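S.,

Sequence below, as promised.
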Amino acid sequence: MREPVNRIQTHIRAVEAKYPRAWEQLAMFRAERGSNNFPLWPGWCYVPLAGAYAIVSGGGDNRVIPGQQTADVGRVAALGAWRLSRGIYRFHPEMFRAVWETEMGDRLPVEHLYALPEFCVYLLFPELMPLFGFSTHGVFVHLEHDVNSGESELRLLLDTDVAGITPIALHLASASIQENIRETEEYTMRQAKRAGDLPTGFVHPPVLDAMRESWERVISLVLYLCSVNLEIRDAAGKKSAPRRPGPVKTKKGWRIFPADATTFWEVGYETGENLARECEVSERGPMGERWSPRPHIRRAHWHSFWTGPRTGARKLVVKWLHPILVGK
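The prediction came back faster than expected:
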């Protein structure tokens, strides 16, 4: 378990060396939220990227940062938010595969993503996985609120094998997750064309398909963390629930303090073990004989529904329906 912790700590130290007061400044921005001419952004966003931009640019009259430092804005924002809880989410390998391969569908409301359990989570992959063209150890995930436009984004920070930590954003302007994926693809294409650096073959369907698949797969993992049937426990095996840290009153006002240590969250281990047994049964019968005909596993899918009293406040939630062995 030390390997991902050491790798993440290396990323954090690199930011601290480049921007020594970054975490202190983010904490100040958060403390001033909604006061002293600071905007009141949604509570699920620790500090908008505008705050990280001010840190990277040096603030003051500096409004433009060099192109090579643009990615630092995403790094400062994600790692600054992750430090508050330091949660690493590790899926059971069979559960990871099942959720990773769950089809998104066309009508999943974007509201589900706002139930992210912490300001920023780190999803640890069981092995290097292809994501947006990178071999990836895992991914930081957090939500952004643009204080100028009022729009939201799902922000990723890819923890890659060779390219370091790389930020990627999904704009959340439309009602469904799939609509936002399509619109983000179109926006990326327009920006690349405008900059004149659209590589040959970029618009080739397989490339776009790979981008879409990357978004769908990582969002499936995020959706499971946001689902009402989330199955999670701490590293000691105790069923518990992660949460965003709350502010603490100090002499200098309300502050959110970072976690002292990393917490490993084990995700879907009971269901994962059941899925592993189901896969074994799908290959052979319960007594070890070969099935004829062989049963199949019905794919997992997402189910959105409203909960709460019919005449009162209701809440739209999402539930993951796991694969089912059919024909055994």
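Residues 85-240 form one domain.

Coffee later?
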